[in-house]
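Input record (one chain):
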Amino acid sequence: MNSEYKLNSIVMMKKAHPCGGNEWVITRVGADIKIKCVKCGRSIMLPRIEFNKKMKKVISL
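The corresponding structure, as predicted from the sequence alone:
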């Protein structure tokens, strides 16, 4: 599950964003993962370990 995503993959997180969306686009991959909400465009950065715990599934690669 850890390496099933890459740059520009769309992922679903376990908890929804306050805007109501739960689909995110990966915009940066490294020690930290930067994701952008598909619905509202807000970006957040998470450590890779935390991202792996919070990610539910990969929607598209």
